[in-house]
Design goal:
Layout lengths: L8 E2 L3 E5 L6 H9 L17 E7 L2 E7 L13 H16 L3 E7 L5 H10 L6 E6 L7 H5 L10 E2 L8 H10 L7 E2 L7 E7 L5 H9 L17 E7 L2 E7 L12 H16 L2 E7 L6 H12 L3 E7 L10 H12 L8 E3 L8 H15 L5 H14 L12 E8 L3 E7 L7 H15 L6 E7 L10 E3 L17
Helix pairs in contact: 11-12
C-alpha cells in the first residue's frame, strides 16, 4: 500500500520508547514527531502515563508511545503507590509493542538501566537500543562498552540535537510490518472526546471506565495525570477516542513548569477533540474555573457536555438532578445549549446516557445544510421577525451560507454589518438551532458586507469564535 501523509490509517504498528527517568525519552519522542507533544523537563519522572500519537516516519504510518520512567527505588517514598503504577503501566505497554526502543545514556549505567536490560533480554527480536547524549561523538567509547550486555547493536544519538536520529528512523521502519495497516475512511473515524476539568474530578477514572483499561493512572493525589492520554473504545458500533487531560487549575495555582505545560497541553487538546466532556464534582457544583474551561471549549466551537460526576455521593432526594441542572443553568446561562448528564465514573452509572448524548451531538457537529435550504429558511425568519427600519438601525439580510462544520459556522451577508444588533444575531442563532437541528452545539455567526458578495473580502463583523445564545455586548468582535 502507498501511504499518504494527508490520510488517516488504522492497525498501526506500535513503537514504544522506554528507559529510566530523565534519560531523554520524551525529547526523542518529540524529535521523532517533529513537534512538541510530550512534556520535557529536567525533573525526573515528568512523564507518568504512556503518551501515544499516530505519526509518519520516513513516509510510513505508525503509533509512537512515550512511557513513564522505570524506577527501582520506590518503596520508601510517600508516592510509592504512584511509582508502582507508572512502572506497571510501562511494562504493560511494552508487552503490546511491535518494537521497543530502549534508551540508555553513555557512561551512565544505573541500577534501573541494568534491571530494564534484564527484563528486555527475552525481547531481542523486537528491541532497538539507543545511546543518548552522544552529540559530536561525545562518550563514544563508553557507548560501545554497552555491547557487553549482549546487544546485537546500538545507535548513538542525540535526541536534543538530532545527531544520527535519521539512521534510527530508518532502523525503526525496517523492523516493522505494515501489512495490516488499513485506510481509515472518514465515516469510520472515531468521535474524539476530551475529558477536561479541575484536578481530581474523576477524569482518569472515567477514561478507564470508557476504555475498559487502565490507560490513565488513577490516584487520590491531585495532578497525577500530566500529559494527554489517548484510549480507544467502541459503543453501539461507533468508534471513540478518549483524551484524558491533566486537570486545569487557575493560573495563580500553577507554580511548577511541568504543570504549566500540562495545563497548556490540556487546553490545546480541545483543538484535537470533537466533543469536550467537562467533569464537575457533583457535591462542589459549578465553579468559576469550570466556567472558564467551558468558555475555552465554546470559543473553539467544540461540542460540550457538562457531567456532574460522583453523583453517587449526592442525597437520594426527589428531583435532585433537576435542581442541580437548574442551579448549573442559573450559574452559567451562556451554556444553556450544553446538555447536562449525571454520572458516577466509579461504577459506570450514567455512562450510556453520556455516550448516547455524544453520538447525537457529533451528528449535529458534522451536519451540513445546503445553501438553498438555508436561504429558504432565512426568508421565513425575516418574514416572522423583520429587521428594524430606523435610519440608524436599518439593514437588509441578503443571504447566508454555512462555511464549516465541526465547528459549525455560518456567514450572513447584510447591507450594513455594523447596524445589526446582538438581539437580532441571537434571533438568527436561535432559529438555526430550532429549525435546522443544531440544538446541542455552539454556533458561530459572522456578519459580512453584502457589497463584497464573496467569502474572501469585504467588511465583516464576527459575533464571537463560536458565539452562544447569549452573545457578547454590541461592538465586540469587530474586525
Amino acid at each position: 500500500m502507498e501511504f499518504n501523509g494527508d490520510l488517516k490509517y488504522r492497525n498501526l504498528p506500535v513503537v514504544v520508547l522506554v528507559g529510566r527517568p530523565n534519560v531523554g525519552k520524551s525529547t526523542l519522542f518529540n524529535r521523532l514527531l517533529h513537534k512538541r507533544r510530550a512534556i520535557t523537563d529536567p525533573t525526573p519522572g515528568v512523564t507518568r502515563d504512556p503518551v501515544g500519537m499516530d505519526t509518519f516516519i520516513r513516509g510510513k504510518p505508525l503509533r509512537l508511545i512515550d512511557t513513564g520512567g522505570f524506577k527501582l527505588d520506590r518503596e520508601s517514598s510517600p508516592g510509592d503507590t504512584l511509582d508502582d503504577l507508572v512502572v506497571g503501566r510501562t511494562l504493560e505497554t511494552i508487552a503490546e509493542a511491535a518494537l521497543v526502543v530502549l534508551i540508555l545514556e553513555a557512561g551512565v549505567v544505573t541500577a534501573e538501566d541494568e534491571e530494564f536490560i534484564r527484563i528486555l533480554r527475552p525481547l531481542q527480536d523486537r528491541l532497538l537500543v539507543t545511546v543518548n547524549k552522544t552529540e559530536g561523538g561525545r562518550r563514544e567509547a563508553d557507548a560501545w562498552n554497552l555491547l557487553s550486555y549482549g546487544f546485537e547493536g546500538i545507535f548513538m544519538i542525540s535526541a536534543e540535537h538530532g545527531d544520527n536520529v535519521g539512521e534510527l528512523e530508518e532502523a525503526i521502519i525496517s523492523r516493522l510490518d505494515f501489512s495490516q495497516v488499513e485506510l481509515d475512511e472518514a465515516e469510520s473515524r472515531p468521535i474524539r472526546l476530551a475529558l477536561v476539568g479541575k484536578p481530581n474530578t474523576g477524569k482518569s477514572t472515567l477514561s478507564n471506565r470508557l476504555t475498559a483499561s487502565l490507560s490513565s493512572l488513577v490516584s487520590d493525589i491531585p495532578g497525577t495525570t500530566r500529559d494527554v492520554v489517548e484510549g480507544e473504545f467502541f459503543y453501539k458500533n461507533r468508534r471513540f477516542l478518549v483524551l484524558d487531560t491533566a486537570g486545569i487549575r487557575r493560573k495563580s495555582k500553577v507554580t511548577e513548569n511541568i504543570e504549566y505545560y500540562s495545563v497548556n497541553r490540556a487546553i490545546k487538546t480541545m483543538d484535537e477533540a470533537d466533543i469536550v466532556i467537562l467533569l464537575i464534582d457533583a457535591q462542589e457544583g459549578l465553579a468559576e474555573q469550570d466556567k472558564k474551561i467551558a468558555a475555552l471549549a465554546h470559543e473553539k466551537g467544540r461540542g460540550i457536555i457538562l457531567v456532574l460526576n460522583k453523583w453517587d455521593t449526592m442525597p437520594e432526594v426527589k428531583n435532585s438532578f433537576t435542581a442541580a441542572s437548574d442551579r448549573t443553568r442559573f450559574l452559567f446561562p451562556k451554556m444553556d445549549y450544553a446538555p447536562i448528564v449525571a454520572l458516577c465514573a466509579l461504577d459506570g452509572s450514567g455512562v450510556e446516557e453520556l455516550l448516547a448524548t455524544a453520538i447525537r451531538m457529533y451528528g449535529q457537529l458534522i451536519k451540513r445544510v445546503e445553501t438553498a435550504a438555508l436561504n429558504q429558511a432565512l426568508e421565513r425568519w425575516l418574514l416572522e421577525y423583520p429587521p428594524p427600519v430606523g435610519p440608524q438601525t436599518r439593514f437588509k439580510v441578503k443571504y447566508a451560507v454555512q462555511v464549516s462544520d465541526n465547528p459549525v459556522r455560518f456567514i450572513f451577508f447584510v447591507s450594513r454589518p455594523g447596524a445589526v444588533g446582538e438581539a437580532y444575531v441571537s434571533y438568527l442563532r436561535n432559529r438555526i438551532r430550532r429549525d435546522l437541528g443544531y440544538s446541542l452545539v455552539p454556533i458561530g455567526i459572522e456578519l459580512r458586507s453584502s457589497r463584497s458578495d464573496n467569502l474572501s473580502s469585504g467588511k465583516a463583523r464576527s459575533t464571537g469564535k463560536a458565539s452562544s445564545r447569549h452573545p457578547p455586548s454590541t461592538g465586540r468582535g469587530r474586525k
